[in-house]
Specification:
about 250 residues, ATP binding, AAA+_ATPase, nucleotide-binding, Rossmann fold, globular, P-loop_NTPase, cell projection, two-stranded antiparallel ribbon, nine-stranded mixed beta sheet
Length: about 250
């Protein structure tokens, strides 16, 4: 029998089959990479994961580079994932990384600060059982230190420093989930994260006639519970959330 005591359940068994399709949950002490182009469903998947985890009693931090708190609540509401109570009960910590207007990530004179260093020092966000960075590539694209290393073709060195921090976090049994748009970053920058991810999910959109179908390609799933399928078809529906499609996406 596969072990399930080390898995954090994604819940919502009555609503969708996502937890079952992913073998009963995400292993504790994992780095999870969710990769997909714009519109592939990365944020919706992060929101579904977050909601299910909180429903199952896990504490969650979700940092978004795109949504404000209001936008997050509205989007969750449209997917029928009601996050108001978890936010008020501090079971979910939502953080908005506001790069465009500078905000908390710039000095008074508008100079950008070292984002990754500041994130690593933000103790409160790493206290949760599961930490989502959505989208992670926007964070390191906006970090001047990372950019400088990229200009010197030292992307791997920059990535390894971040990875060593993540390894420290997951050694405490926590899960770090990174969503990445591969079209927005160089392969050399993202390669090390693909290599070290314990769970690597690739979201894909496929045109079938006039229909757009989405699927999760499971590239790696270390420490899985029940058998995890290689390909999981899904859709994102207003008023319903993530729906696992039984049809195969060819």
């Amino acid at each position: 029998m596969p072990r399930t005591d080390n898995l954090l359940s994604l819940g919502l068994g009555e609503r969708d089959r996502l937890n079952k399709e992913l073998g009963g949950g995400i292993p504790r002490g994992s780095i999870v990479l969710v990769e997909g182009d714009y519109g592939a469903g990365k944020s919706a998947m992060s929101q579904r994961f977050s909601y299910g985890l909180v429903e199952e009693g896990a504490s969650v931090t979700l940092m978004s580079t795109e949504l404000t708190v209001r936008g997050f609540i509205d989007q969750m509401h449209s997917l029928e994932y009601d996050m108001v109570k978890p936010l008020l009960n501090e079971e979910l910590l939502f953080l908005h990384a506001d790069f465009d207007s500078g905000g908390a990530f710039s000095d008074d004179d508008g100079e950008r600060k070292e984002l990754l260093k500041r994130l690593m020092n933000a103790d409160a966000m790493w206290r949760s059982d599961v930490i989502f960075l959505d989208t992670f590539d926007a964070i390191f694209r906006n970090d001047p230190t990372f950019e400088a290393l990229v200009r010197k073709n030292e992307e791997r060195q920059a990535a390894l420093e971040i990875i060593s921090f993540f390894r420290e976090i997951i050694s405490q049994g926590k899960i770090v989930v990174l969503t990445v748009d591969p079209s927005a970053v160089d392969d050399d920058a993202i390669g090390p994260f693909r290599s070290i991810a314990d769970v690597f999910l690739q979201l894909e959109m496929i045109e079938v006639g006039n229909d757009i179908r989405r699927q999760i390609n499971v590239k790696r799933f270390a420490g899985m519970g029940e058998q995890v399928g290689d390909t999981i078809g899904f859709s994102v529906r207003s008023g319903t959330g993530i729906v696992i499609e039984s049809r195969s996406v060819a």
